[in-house]
């Protein structure tokens, strides 16, 4: 459309997309799921075509070669492959955060298992198949990029690598078509992300730990978690308009990945405790469980991602242009501490100071949604 991507234009488009997603998922559940599934399939097909064309180029097929006028890459020689790479642990972890962000949607299905038919049977089959397919496609996509785009263009052009790929292989006229592919891919990603996060908020409501839990747990009035979706919509719009450009995007990616690593450390450590003898009295026997070796590996890898960002990077590598290198790490701990403080005030300090205890009971709401509710039971006179 040849519209200049100014601050106003980009945020107007993003705001429109978020509003559309909240409306569709909050009022037209089935159509929202169909749309995100269709876009996900479309994305896999496009990525598959890119992978195949890149491999054909690497194999030397005529007609699928870098066009005249563009630098022919030599990215697979051992010397050039690692030239300019950072060697510090901090740079390594920053790179891992970006890789994790690329795969961030792999766990979205787990957030919506309450809406899946026979979830244990489905996840046992679907999860390995999906992880294998996506990993293979992403691996071949990177091979294709390196086969078609020179390292110099990747580092210095300040353009999306996929755009350089299409330009080098199919000519500059295909770049606009690529823009449409990227826009649809981004819309599909947002649809899946908002869908899953809205259900995370709903499940917190069903656990009874949020204020107005009955509202957040409800599926009224459109048989969808509209309250959770709208909450996620408000958070997304806040980041959209408040966070300044520059380091902000990298900071948000790193903050999200770091916070996820903190949760992963806690969850995997809890799973390891359940394997110990002192917790056998809980008789923990879920229908689907991860092998102990995988849990240990998961715990150690996430502990590494949590600890290393506090070590300063080498002088030749900067995590951010203006922000301190530890910004996302401290931010992740602040967010986690805020959640812990909320739990302590609500679940420990207020009951102790006002002389009551919280008893959890299972209730059924008028809309048919079952959830936990906490009832205040007076035990002593309030603390003086």
Can you walk through the features of this model?
The chain is mainly alpha-helical. The chain has a domain of 242 residues: Amino acid/polyamine transporter I (Up-down Bundle). It has a two-stranded antiparallel ribbon with strand order 1-2. A hairpin with a 5-residue loop joins β1 and β2. The model has no long low-confidence stretch (mean pLDDT 84).
Supply database-style keywords.
384 residues, mainly alpha, Amino acid/polyamine transporter I, two-stranded antiparallel sheet, globular
Task: Give the SSE layout.
Layout: H1 7-27, H2 29-59, H3 78-82, H4 89-102, H5 108-111, H6 119-148, H7 151-156, H8 161-170, H9 175-206, H10 213-217, H11 226-242, H12 248-275, H13 292-307, H14 327-354, E1 356-364, E2 370-378
């Amino acid at each position: 459309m040849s519209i200049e991507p100014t601050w106003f234009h980009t945020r107007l488009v993003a705001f429109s997309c978020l509003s559309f997603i909240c409306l569709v998922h909050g009022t037209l559940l089935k159509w929202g799921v169909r749309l995100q599934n269709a876009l996900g399939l479309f994305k896999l097909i496009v990525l598959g075509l890119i992978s195949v064309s890149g491999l054909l180029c690497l194999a030397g097929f005529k007609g699928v070669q870098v066009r005249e006028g563009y630098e022919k890459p030599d990215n697979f020689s051992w010397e050039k492959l690692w030239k300019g790479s950072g060697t510090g642990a901090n740079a390594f972890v920053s790179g891992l955060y970006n890789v994790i962000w690329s795969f961030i949607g792999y766990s979205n299905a787990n957030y919506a298992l309450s809406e899946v038919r026979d979830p244990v049977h489905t996840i046992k089959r679907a999860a390995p198949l999906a992880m294998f397919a996506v990993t293979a496609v992403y691996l071949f996509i990177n091979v294709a990029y390196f086969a078609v785009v020179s390292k110099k263009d990747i580092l210095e052009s300040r353009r999306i690598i996929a755009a350089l790929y299409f330009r080098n292989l199919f000519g500059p006229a295909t770049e606009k078509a690529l823009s449409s592919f990227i826009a649809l891919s981004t819309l599909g990603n947002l649809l899946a992300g908002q869908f899953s996060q809205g259900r995370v908020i709903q499940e917190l409501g069903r656990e009874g730990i949020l204020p107005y839990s009955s509202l957040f747990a409800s599926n009224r009035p459109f048989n969808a978690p509209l309250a959770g979706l709208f909450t996620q919509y408000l958070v997304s719009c806040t980041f959209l308009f408040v966070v300044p450009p520059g380091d902000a995007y990298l900071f948000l990616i790193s903050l999200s990945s770091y916070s996820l690593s903190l949760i992963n450390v806690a969850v995997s450590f809890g799973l390891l405790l359940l394997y110990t003898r002192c917790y056998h009295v809980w008789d923990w026997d879920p229908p689907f469980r991860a092998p102990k070796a995988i849990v240990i590996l998961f715990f150690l890898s996430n502990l590494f991602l949590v600890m290393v960002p506090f070590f300063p990077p080498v002088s030749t590598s900067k995590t951010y242009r203006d922000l301190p290198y530890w910004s996302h790490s401290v931010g992740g701990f602040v967010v986690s501490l805020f959640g812990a403080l909320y739990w302590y005030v609500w679940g420990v300090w207020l009951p102790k100071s006002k002389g009551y205890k919280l008893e959890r009971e299972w209730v059924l709401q008028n809309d048919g949604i079952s959830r936990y509710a906490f009832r205040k039971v007076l035990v002593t006179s309030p603390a003086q």
